[in-house]
Design goal:
The protein is α/β, with parallel strands linked by helices. It folds into 2 domains: about 150 residues, 2-Layer Sandwich (Nucleotidyltransferase, domain 5), CATH 3.30.420; about 190 residues, ATPase, nucleotide binding domain (Nucleotidyltransferase, domain 5), CATH 3.30.420. It contains 15 helices and 14 strands. The strands form 2 sheets. The protein has an 8-stranded mixed beta sheet with strand order 5-4-3-2-1-6-8-7, with helices on both faces. The chain has a 6-stranded mixed beta sheet with strand order 11-10-9-12-14-13, with helices on both faces. Helix 10 packs across helix 11 and helix 11 crosses helix 13. The chain is globular and about 60 Å long. Bound molecules: adenosine-5'-diphosphate. The site of adenosine-5'-diphosphate has 13 residues, from helix 10 and helix 12.
C-alpha cells in the first residue's frame, strides 16, 4: 500500500509518499512561495539514498503546486510510481478539528463542511488545509482520502483540563477552550515509547515533550492525553522560537493602553516577535548555543527560560499523572539538543528523574534512553515521524 501525505499551508505544500509495507518514505517534497513571483519546488527521491531536484518558476496556486508534485512523483526517471493509480490513499494534515473530530475522518462532503465550520478556531490554517483537500480530491478522484487532525489526540482531556476559567457561556457559545496541537507527534512518540519500555500503552504513564520551532508537552495516561500545554491556539504553554507561550493575558490590555497597539499588532508581537527571538533576537537553538558560548547574556537567558519552562511543565504533569513511567523528548530541539534535555531534567532527582549525562550527550537520530539505571522515571529521546503517523492513521481509518 502506498499513501501520499499532504500538509498544505497558506503558501506552501509539503508532501511525502510512503510505502506502508516498509513504513518508509519513497519520495518527499516541498513547494514554497505559492502565489509569489517565483515559486520553488524541491523534490526528493528517497528510494535509494537521496536524490534531490529543484525547480524555480511561478507557482500561482495550490492546484499547480500539487500537479507539479505529481509530475515528480510519477516522473519517468525519478518518480516513485508509474502513475497516480498506484497511490492507494491520501492523508491530509488538518490543524483544527474542534470538538467535531476525535479521530481521523475519511473525507466526504460532510467532513469537508465540518472542517470549514471549524475555520473560526484556526483562521490561518484550516482554509489552507481545505484547499489542499479540494485540490487533491480533483487530482485523485478515485483515491480514498483521510483528514488527520493536530487536535484529535487531545480530545480525551477531561473538562477540568480543557475548560478555561472564563464565563462558561463562552465555551457554550463559541467553544472557547483548550484544544492542544502537535497531536500526531504526541501520539506517535507515546506509542513508540510504550513499545520501547516493553509495557502495554494502556498501562503506561508518559510525559511527551515536543520541542521544535513550536513546542508543546502532553500528559498521556494509558495512551490517552489528559492534559497538554497548547490551548485554543498554538500560542500557549512552553516558550517557543517566536511565540511567547504562557503570559499574563492582561499583557494585551497593558500594551494597548500604554503603547497604543492594536489587537492585530499585539497578536503579531506574541506570535512572531516573542519567545526565544523576543529575548535574544535568535529563534534557532543552535545559534543561541553559539552566542552563549561567546558570552551573550541574552542568549543565555533565553536558553535558561526555555529549559525552565519545560521543567515546570514536567513537574506539573508528574502531579497530573501521579508519577510517570517516562519523560519522552522529541522534535528538532528535543532530539538534537542535549543542553536543553539536561537543563530541563536537572534538579528533578527528588521527583524520580535522573538523567545520565553521558548517555544524554549529542544528537539522537534513533530512539534511545538517556536516564541513569537507578532513575525511577525513565527519560527517552524518540525521534518523531508525523508523516508516518498520518499515513498509519489514514490506513487505520480506511480499514
Ligand atoms: P518545526 O516546529 O518547524 O517542525 P522542528 O521540529 O524541525 O521544527 O525543530 C526546528 C528547531 O530545532 C530549530 O529551530 C532549532 O532550534 C532546533 N534544532 C535543529 N537541529 C538542532 C541541533 N542540532 N541542535 C539544537 N537545536 C536544533
Amino acid at each position: 500500500m502506498k499513501i501520499l501525505v499532504i500538509n498544505c499551508g497558506s503558501s506552501s505544500l509539503k508532501y511525502m509518499l510512503l510505502d506502508m509495507k516498509k513504513q518508509a518514505p519513497m519520495s518527499s517534497g516541498v513547494v514554497e512561495r505559492i502565489g509569489e513571483d517565483v515559486g520553488i519546488i524541491t523534490h526528493k527521491d528517497l528510494r535509494d539514498g537521496e536524490r534531490k531536484f529543484r525547480e524555480d518558476h511561478p507557482i500561482p496556486d495550490h492546484d499547480v503546486a500539487l500537479r507539479l508534485a505529481v509530475d515528480h512523483l510519477t516522473h519517468p526517471e525519478h518518480g516513485a510510481v508509474a502513475g497516480v493509480h498506484e497511490i492507494d490513499a491520501v492523508g491530509h494534515r488538518v490543524v483544527q478539528g474542534g470538538e467535531t473530530f476525535k479521530a481521523p475522518a475519511v473525507i466526504d462532503k460532510a467532513v469537508t463542511e465540518a472542517i470549514r465550520a471549524n475555520i473560526p478556531l484556526a483562521p490561518l490554517h484550516n482554509p489552507a488545509n481545505l484547499t489542499g483537500i479540494e485540490v487533491a480530491l480533483e487530482l485523485f478522484p478515485k483515491c480514498p482520502q483521510v483528514a488527520v487532525f493536530d487536535t484529535e489526540f487531545h480530545q480525551t482531556m477531561p473538562p477540568r483540563a480543557y475548560i478555561y476559567a472564563l464565563p462558561y457561556r463562552l465555551y457554550e457559545e463559541l467553544r472557547v477552550r483548550r484544544y492542544g496541537f502537535h497531536g500526531t507527534s504526541h501520539r506517535y512518540v507515546a506509542r513508540t515509547a510504550a513499545k520501547l519500555l516493553g509495557k502495554p500503552l494502556e498501562k503506561t504513564k508518559l510525559i511527551t515533550v515536543h520541542l521544535g520551532n513550536g513546542s508543546s508537552i502532553a500528559a498521556v495516561d494509558g495512551g490517552r492525553c489528559v492534559d497538554t500545554s497548547m490551548g485554543l491556539t498554538p500560542l500557549a504553554g512552553l516558550m517557543m522560537g517566536t511565540r511567547c507561550g504562557d503570559v499574563d493575558p492582561a499583557v494585551f490590555t497593558f500594551l494597548a493602553d500604554n503603547k497604543g497597539m492594536s489587537i492585530k499588532e499585539i497578536d503579531e508581537l506574541l506570535n512572531k516577535q516573542s519567545g526565544l527571538k523576543g529575548i535574544c533576537g535568535m529563534n534557532d537553538m543552535r545559534d543561541i548555543h553559539e552566542a552563549r558560548a561567546h558570552g551573550d547574556e541574552k542568549a543565555q537567558l533565553a536558553f535558561e527560560m526555555f529549559a525552565y519552562r519545560v521543567k515546570k511543565y514536567i513537574g506539573a504533569y508528574l502531579a497530573v499523572l501521579g508519577g510517570a513511567d517516562a519523560v519522552v523528548f522529541t522534535a528538532g530541539i528535543g532530539e538534537n539538543d542535549d543542553f536543553v534535555r539536561e537543563a530541563a531534567c536537572s534538579g528533578l532527582e527528588q521527583l524520580g528523574i535522573i538523567i545520565d549525562q553521558t548517555a544524554n550527550q549529542g544528537r539522537k537520530t534513533e530512539a534511545c534512553p538517556v536516564h541513569r539505571p537507578e532513575s525511577p522515571v525513565q527519560v527517552w529521546v524518540v525521534p518523531t515521524d508525523e508523516e508516518l503517523e498520518i499515513a498509519l492513521a489514514s490506513r487505520a481509518a480506511l480499514s
